[in-house]
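User: I'm putting together notes for a lab meeting next week and I want to include a structural view of one of the chains we've been expressing. I don't have a solved structure, so I'd like a prediction I can at least talk through. The sequence is below, exactly as it appears in our construct file.
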Amino acid sequence: MDTHVDDIVRLITEEHLTDVILVGHSYAGLVLSSAANRIPDRIAHLVNFDAMVPEDGESGGRGFHDPSPHRPPAARPRPPGR
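Assistant: Thanks for the context. Below is the predicted structure for the 82-residue chain, given as structure tokens.
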């Protein structure tokens, strides 16, 4: 994930971009949140579409192993062998 975050931060800073709107889906929610935390003065908005967005202090790995209790049961991944 660090490589993806570094790429976004590098592009925004090297191109001297400001008021950036970052849009992400799924795993990109973690990447965009991390990038925005590194350069908050350059980010205008984050748009997450069905994305994993960590709460303050939360690890990104949680979304892969412990599905959100807010998703309906049909949307939760089934354990292997079921």
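A couple of points you could mention at the meeting. The first strand starts at residue 20 and ends at 26. The CA atoms of residues 36 and 43 lie 6 Å apart.

User: Perfect, that's what I needed.
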